[in-house]
Design a protein that fits this description.
The complex is a heterodimer of chains A (228) and B (263). With 228 residues, chain A is mainly alpha-helical. Chain A is built from eight helices and no strands. In chain B, a hairpin with a 7-residue loop joins strand 1 and strand 2. The chains are: A mainly alpha (228), B alpha+beta (263).
Chain lengths: 228, 263
Amino acid sequence: MSTPAVKSTARNEHRLHPLPARIMHWINVAAIFIMIGSGWKIYDDDVIFGWLHFPDSIVIGKWAQYGLQWHFFGMWIFVINGLVYLTYGIATGRFRQKLFPLSVSEILATVGDALRFRLAHDDLTHYNAVQKLLYLGIMAIGILIVLSGLALWKPVQFSELAALFYNFQTTRLIHFLCMAAIVVFLLVHVALALLVPQSLLAMLTGGPVVDDKPGRAVEPAVEIEATH
Amino acid sequence: MPLRTRTLSIFRPRKPVDQSVLAENRALVDDINRRNVLRGAVSLGALALLTGCDVSENDSVQKALRAVSSWNDRVQAAIFRPNHLAPTFSAAAVVKPPRFNAYYDIEDVKPVDGATWTLQLAGRIEDKRPWTAQQIYGLPEQELIIRHICVEGWDYIGQWSGPNLRDFLQRIGADLTAKYVYFICADDFIESIDMATALHPQTILATKYANDIIADPFGYPLRLRTSTKLGYKNAKWIKAIEVSNDFRETFWSKQGFNWFAGI
């Protein structure tokens, strides 16, 4: 097993994860952390599900006002960073290159491979169809959680937007379910990153140098044995 | 649990291992298994979350968070649409009685005597003569069937009526270019709203709920009801109104809740 080919002379824009993408990824980690922790505190003041109450030890903010302060601080980081990231991904062609094309048959084939434990991770620079679908899906959830959040924050000023979410309690529910989806994504995302440590390392160092056009590795790609 | 005796392998000791130790310490083992490991894991998570001791209470952290909250006040004022109406509902949707909330329980409400009550006026107002309940209740009424949204997350539809605040401010010769309108209440509560909200068409001094005079717990004889603020900004048992250009912290903003609290 070789280590990721990292050369200090290589230019950042040619890496698997260019510097701007890495910076925005880790800013997003901090923002998501603040938003979920403080969101749980806000949730606890008037629970949606009687059986679900987040313990004080895992929420951000000892009192309701602290939870609210963190949430309405974190929202700026999450939204601004997210907007810059989406603009960057679209403008540089990163999304087009990494996440498209995406076909239903490819997704089914990848799911089949995964079920038969035949998924290959031999090339970090290439996302399989399920990865593409998950990354696109989590971006859609990110947009939905911001829109439902805006509808909760300003149901009167943005009453046109709020109407799309039916009423105040259904908006809360949608906002909550988006959070739950992000938590599930994070569990899978972090577990896989730990299973394939090179991918975690790549998000810190930039990873292998790639050729711009095809989005494939130029230098020897990281080799990971497909032992699942 | 009985020890197995039938299928002893040749590698097993002739005499079974003394399991009394396990039995004696069963409680301890269970305790370690079930609770401490779980608690340990959660605590570790909590430590990672930096909430073991709440950093929010740290002076500089709190200062920064409140600075962001003040910035959010300005953003909310900027996106406020002065003539945009909140959705209204039919009388069939009205919840009776309204939901109570204050910084104390409903049993601790001290009713206000309407016969001796007066509304005092202060600040940038030309005619500061106090008003009796009778005079206020004689003013033209406006009805609002609007959603009440609490910062905690619950909501209900309420039916409120009473004099329009803009009309009232004009009637008393208030300076409508001033920045803030303060409501000083009988329960040592003080809240204030921005002038744009005070002049919004759906901001009233409510005297009635569902066509009946407001009951004691909900603000008799006079309370604020506006469609564009969270519940906690809607002052109850108002005893004085002050128009001012000076910003002073209010009951909830002092405790760290957002001052503008627009919805």
